[in-house]
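Design a sequence for this backbone.
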C-alpha cells in the first residue's frame, strides 16, 4: 500500500498519492485521500487517548 497509499504532506498541508515527498515531510500511508486529509486530527485524537491512558495507568485521572 505504500506506493499506492495516500499521504498527508506536513509541509504543504496537501494530500499526495504515492511516495511523492521525503519521509520527513509526510504522514501515512492512508487507504483514502479523506483519511489522509484528516491525518493531523487523527493524530491529535490518538495523542489525547494515549495521554488519558497514561494518567489512568499512573493513578491520576486529571
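Sequence:
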Amino acid at each position: 500500500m505504500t506506493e499506492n497509499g495516500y499521504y498527508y504532506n506536513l509541509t504543504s498541508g496537501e494530500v499526495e498519492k504515492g511516495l511523492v515527498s521525503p519521509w520527513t515531510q509526510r504522514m501515512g500511508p492512508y487507504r483514502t485521500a479523506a483519511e489522509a486529509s484528516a491525518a493531523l486530527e487523527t493524530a491529535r485524537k490518538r495523542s489525547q487517548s494515549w495521554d488519558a491512558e497514561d494518567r489512568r495507568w499512573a493513578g491520576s485521572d486529571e
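The CA atoms of residues 12 and 28 lie 15 Å apart.
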